[in-house]
C-alpha cells in the first residue's frame, strides 16, 4: 500500500494580517508532521458578502483593536509586521498576481510569502502601481494576471471556499474539517497528531446546538 501524506488546503487573502501571521507560523505548527500544504488565494470580501458581514476593518472600534492586536501577536510570535500605509485596500491585483504564478492556480509558498511581505513588511501602500509593477517583475508570473483565466480561477477558489462553509481567512481544510484563524494552529496540530477529542463527539455536537434567539435583520 502506498502511503500518502495528508493534504492541507490553506485559504488566504493577502488583505488579512491574521492570514500573514498564520502563514508565518505554519511551518512551526506543522514541524515533524508528514503533511503537504496547498495554498489557495480567495477574495475575503466575497466571503463577507455571501454571509452578509462586514470585515473587521469596516467596524469602528474593532478596526482599531485589530491593528493593535496583530502588532502584539506579531511581537509575541517573532514575526515581522508593519502596517501598510492604508488598510483595507483592494487586494484583487495581488490575488490575481499570485494565482498567475502557477499554471494550476495554486501558488507555492515562496510566491505567497513574497506577496505577504509586500503587504505586511514594508509599511508602504500595498497597491501602489509602481510597487505592484516591481513585484510582478520579481515574481515573473506564468500567466497574465489580468487575463480571464486567472480571474475565473480566483472566482472558482472563492466559490469553493463558500461551498465548504468558509466565512473568513485564514482557513485551513484537512479531511472533512475546517480550522479558522491564526489561533487555531495548535488545534490543527492536535488533530493531525491524532488527538482523541476530535473523535469523541464534541466536534459534531457543536454543530447541533439549538439557537435560543435570532435577531431580526
How would you characterize the overall build of this protein?
The chain is of the alpha+beta class and 217 residues long. The chain has one domain (6-208): 3-Layer(aba) Sandwich (Glutaredoxin). The chain contains nine helices and four strands, in the order E-H-E-H-H-H-H-H-H-E-E-H-H. Strands 2-1-3-4 form a four-stranded mixed β-sheet, sandwiched between helices. Helix 1 (17-29) links the parallel strand 1 and strand 2 (35-41).
Give the topology, please.
Layout: E1 6-12, H1 17-29, E2 35-41, H2 44-51, H3 62-77, H4 92-100, H5 109-120, H6 129-139, H7 148-163, E3 171-174, E4 177-180, H8 185-192, H9 202-205
Parallel strand pairs: 1-2
Antiparallel strand pairs: 1-3, 3-4
Helix pairs in contact: 1-3, 1-5, 1-8, 2-7, 4-7
Radius of gyration: 18 Å
Give the low-pLDDT segments. Answer: none
For the termini, the CA-CA separation is 54 Å
CATH architecture classification name: 3-Layer(aba) Sandwich
Biggest sheet record: 4 strands, mixed
Q: Please tell me the total number of domains.
A: 1
Question: What is the average per-residue confidence, as pLDDT, rounded to a whole number?
Answer: 96
> What percent of residues adopt helix (DSSP H or I)?
40-55%
Number of H/I helices: 9
Brief rundown of the structure:
By secondary structure, the chain is of the alpha+beta class. It is built from nine helices and four strands, in the order βαβααααααββαα. Helix content is 45%, strand content 10%.
Amino acid at each position: 500500500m502506498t502511503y500518502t501524506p495528508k493534504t492541507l488546503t490553506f485559504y488566504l487573502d493577502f488583505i488579512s494580517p491574521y492570514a500573514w501571521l498564520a502563514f508565518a507560523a505554519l511551518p512551526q505548527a506543522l514541524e515533524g508532521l508528514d503533511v503537504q500544504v496547498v495554498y489557495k488565494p480567495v477574495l475575503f470580501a466575497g466571503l463577507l458578502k455571501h454571509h452578509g458581514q462586514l470585515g473587521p476593518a469596516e467596524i469602528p472600534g474593532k478596526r482599531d483593536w485589530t491593528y493593535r492586536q496583530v502588532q502584539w501577536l506579531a511581537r509575541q510570535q517573532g514575526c515581522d509586521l508593519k502596517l501598510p500605509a492604508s488598510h483595507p485596500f483592494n487586494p484583487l491585483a495581488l490575488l490575481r498576481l499570485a494565482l498567475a504564478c502557477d499554471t494550476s492556480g495554486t501558488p507555492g509558498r515562496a510566491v505567497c510569502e513574497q506577496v505577504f511581505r509586500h503587504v505586511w513588511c514594508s509599511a508602504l501602500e500595498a497597491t501602489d502601481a509602481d510597487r505592484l509593477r516591481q513585484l510582478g517583475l520579481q515574481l515573473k508570473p506564468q500567466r497574465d494576471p489580468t487575463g480571464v483565466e486567472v480571474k475565473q480561477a480566483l472566482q472558482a477558489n472563492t466559490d469553493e471556499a463558500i461551498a465548504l462553509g468558509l466565512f473568513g481567512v485564514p482557513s485551513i481544510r484537512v479531511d472533512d474539517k475546517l480550522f479558522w484563524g491564526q489561533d487555531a494552529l495548535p488545534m490543527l496540530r492536535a488533530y493531525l497528531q491524532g488527538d482523541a477529542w476530535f473523535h469523541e463527539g464534541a466536534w459534531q455536537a457543536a454543530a447541533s446546538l439549538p439557537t435560543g434567539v435570532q435577531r431580526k435583520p
